[in-house]
Amino acid sequence: MACLASSNAHGVGGDSDGASVLVRLAWGRQVSALTWGVGCAVAIVCLALVIARRQSVETHAAQAERASRPAALRDAELVYMERLFRISTPVGLVARLDRAYRMPSGLLVLVEFKTRWSNQPFLSDVIQLSAQRMTVMGQTGQSVASYGYVMVKAPTRRALPIAHFVKLMTGEQVVALVRRREEILAGRGVLPRKSSSLKTCDSCAFRADCDSGDR
Known about the structure:
This protein is of the alpha+beta class. The chain is built from 4 helices and 5 strands.
């Protein structure tokens, strides 16, 4: 009789221990699930913050880009930015343009940015834009306007770029300019003309090849 009671007691104790184990397992699973849920929630919140910040930065950049445009291009689409173009015919040209905008008509308009104190476009700016126009048309087959804009910004933090409308050279004029340069560098009897700006002449890489008395 005593043995039976003892056996029953052990049986009850065993059931109690098993129930405790099950409770602990269930609790552990609940804690793990809760921890996983909290971790997922934190990850989602962090991801949402990163996305929101990125969108804010992109929105600010887009607003800054739009504010820097010439007024005539407010409704245009920015299609190229810091893009390299090249052609091999009728002459070899490589040009890196600052920006190109597509007007509602489909015509591309080129924009060149310059940082300097002199608030005016130079002939070198027109040549740059003209060469860019020729390479873009030659590489893509798209129509590019025969005019462009030079955005001149003073080298100060708060200065805003000022737009200057410029008429570009024709393709024939660009080709003639390139071939004239080649003739001068090859020494084939074509003489360079002196620059109208002494600063341009002084900074020229070929200054040493020129007659200093006839610059």
